[in-house]
Amino acid sequence: MNTKETLIRNRWRYISFIIGFFLFVAPFALFTRAVYLMVGNTAEPTLHSVCFRMPIDWIFGGRFYSILGSSWFMAAFAFGVIISSVFLGAAFCGWLCPVGAVSEAISRSVPIPKRFRLRISDTKLTVSMRYGFLVGFIIVAALVGYKLASDQLGSICCRYCASSVLQNFASALFGDLSAIEYWQSGAIISLLFWLVVGGLFMSGGRGWCLFFCPLGALSGIAHKVGAKLGFYRVEYEKGACTGCNSCQDICPMWAIKEDRTVERTLCVNCKECVHACNAYKLLRGRRVADS
Amino acid sequence: MKTKYILGFVFVLAITLSLGAYSATLGKSELVHFWVAVPAGNVTAPMVLRGAGPPISMSPIVIDLQSRGILKNLLQPQLEGLSTHWIYNLGKKPVKIKLNLANVPSDIAVDWKVNSGFEYDEATRTFTTLLNPGGSIPNLGIDWIFHIPAYYMDEPVIYDGGLEVIDANTNAVLTFIPIKFVNGAANGSVTSGGSCH
Predict the structure, then answer these.
(1) What domain count does chain A have?
(2) Are A132 and B10 within 8 A, CB to CB?
(3) C-alpha to C-alpha distance for B73 and B65, rounded to whole angstroms
(4) What is the pTM of this model?
């Protein structure tokens, strides 16, 4: 499928990603700016102000005072994303998240032969790896937070942060070149995994989202629960399937199982499969059997 | 078949824990994050300051440039940074916080990057809003980026100064945190380099 077709097919999602960029990334950060204005906060908002990972780190590290203190907005945002995933699927990941959007865009726009791009077709393996990271993230947060191994372990959350890297690049792009002058090793590792390994060399460009995002992993669980309850989810109807496998090729989150049903914990409701094939439909309500 | 999934889970779990261990090493030598509270006087040894508000741990900061990550030492050895997101007033009176980096050699340039929920005067490096007892500066982020000339890189001690936290109304130094940049020190920083907030 050529670039023009991809753009047309995904036009609403790509417009949504651009809106997401303006809502969360400085120098715009319009969403955060609006909230800061309402509460009289004079700090300059950045993508960091709505960190997708720190509130999860705080919860499992027992730092509840951070959630209740001056960073309440950050926590409210992250938990809002998880709760909304029950009703809408992981739509923030699939439609708004600027971190996933950039790596996906790089994957789609840099022509690399398919054979050089990793894709795990076994969704159970992808799921087990995704939640291996989440469990590791939680263990590190707890051991550091409760000072059980704070000398041996350091923060995963802030040391390896693709959002910070993105924000620094965006600031530089809009005139503040000093934003990209300093690089710590964790930021270099994050950049390499987010854009090069996860973006260029993983099919769909969502390697970071699949294997290094705790918010995405928790949103996946929320979506699985929501789908069982009959809220928005993508359904597969076997009768309409021609067996072409385009669904598995096109899904950026590797969420199509071998029997072509959808793995909820990976799906971000991006509707790629819905656009590519009549066998997939975005539905709500409980009338169709859950896949 | 199940073995494959268990191995996948354990593989990524092990990578994550390894990254956590590596983060602990990096946190003591790259963009070290530290906590600040006033009034603590001269922080000559690790201490916990108690008063109005939460107890705050502070210590002298020693950054060993040789302990930094391979990527950092390879790609950008002459830039090093410090950062804080936490300035607390544990005293009994509201204070107007002013900051100063003491004893910076004239040929080492330091960029100050300050973002805060309090009004900040860049010229005097003063937060013009009073910080009340028990409170902290909201949404604070300060990065100090040191540009170290190449000829310093073989010196055993590159910077030996510290952060002065000053009452802007009286010019009294409320807290002084010694900061040292060294090459190959036996003692690294006591901070863990923790999280951003």
Answers:
(1) 1
(2) yes
(3) 8
(4) 0.91
